[in-house]
Write the structure tokens for this entry.
Amino acid sequence: MPYHQFIAGKKEDANHEWLSWEQGHVWRGGVVISPQAVIDDDLFDYMYDTFRWLRAQFPNGKWEHGLDNYGYSLIQHPEDIRKLQEIAIAWKSLFGAGPEEIGLTGNYGWDGADPENGFYEKLKFSKHELIRQMDNLIEVTEKALETGICVIHFGI
């Protein structure tokens, strides 16, 4: 399963030459970057509309609303980092109200070439895993705000 990673860092930390991706995490010099939030791609897709409330700089230098699904995104302004933090806190609260196994509706797909065989994916997550992912994202935003650096999102 592909993952999205969030770290706190300087703009130049988005340079892929310094980083490696192993076991779903971002590494630098053989060490896992911490704090770091790792979010399952299906969950990221489910949350995507709320990420569109953020302004981020994409690899082409343009500022967009949302996060680059396949490249990196730099969330640089404190108001956008705080907004990301508020989004993570809200999702954490929502997931906290759910059952131990949370079922979510995923993307629409087809079984074969017949357009009549469409269906929505059924996603299953552990409540505690979802809360842990949101806690990690909150920790990343806290570090960025405390140290005056940005949040870097790496797409799949």
In short: The first strand starts at residue 3 and ends at 9. The chain has one domain: 3-154. Residues 127-147 form the longest helix (21 residues).
